[in-house]
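quick q for whoever's on today - can somebody do inverse folding on this one?? i tried earlier but teh output was garbage lol. C-alpha cells:
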C-alpha cells in the first residue's frame, strides 16, 4: 500500500492507495489531441499554369505569349522569340502555326552529344511554333513632292 498526504486544504486527511490504483489515477486522459507532422507539406501546392496559350490558326499581335514551359517542349520557329524562363512569344502580328521539323542541335551542345548515341540514320523531330506574318496590302498614298 501507499500513503498519500493530500495537503493542507479543506480536508487534512491521509488516504491509502494500492500501487495499481495510484498509477491509474496519474494517467492523463485523451483530452489533448495528437499533433500532426509538419514535414512533407508540399504536395498540395497549386499548378504553375504551363502550356500553350494560343492554338494553331489563332491570330496574335507582337508580344503575345504563345506558350509557357518549364523545359523546352516547343522550340521557337519563324518570328517567335524565347524568354529567360523559356516562354515563347510572337515577334510580329500574324497567325500561329505548329510544325514538326527535323531537329539539328548546335555541334557544341549537350544535345548533340546525346545524338551521337542514337543509331545511324536516326532523325529527331521536334515541335516548332511559327508565326506567319499578315501580308501587307499593296496600297500606298501618293504624297506630292514640293
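ok took a stab at it. sequence:
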Amino acid at each position: 500500500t501507499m500513503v498519500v498526504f493530500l495537503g493542507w486544504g479543506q480536508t487534512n486527511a491521509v488516504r491509502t492507495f494500492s500501487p495499481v490504483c495510484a498509477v491509474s489515477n496519474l494517467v492523463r486522459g485523451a483530452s489533448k489531441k495528437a499533433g500532426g507532422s509538419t514535414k512533407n507539406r508540399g504536395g498540395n501546392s497549386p499548378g504553375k499554369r504551363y502550356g500553350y496559350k494560343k492554338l494553331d490558326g489563332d491570330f496574335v499581335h507582337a508580344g503575345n505569349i504563345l506558350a509557357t514551359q518549364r523545359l523546352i517542349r516547343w522550340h521557337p520557329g519563324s518570328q517567335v522569340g524565347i524568354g529567360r524562363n523559356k516562354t515563347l512569344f510572337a515577334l510580329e502580328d500574324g497567325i500561329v502555326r505548329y510544325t514538326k521539323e527535323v531537329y539539328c542541335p548546335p555541334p557544341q551542345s549537350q544535345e548533340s552529344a546525346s545524338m551521337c548515341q542514337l543509331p545511324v540514320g536516326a532523325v529527331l523531330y521536334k515541335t516548332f511554333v511559327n508565326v506567319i506574318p499578315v501580308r501587307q496590302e499593296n496600297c500606298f498614298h501618293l504624297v506630292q513632292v514640293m
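fwiw Residues 19 and 61 are 86 Å apart (CA to CA). also The chain has a mean pLDDT of 82. so keep that in mind when u check it
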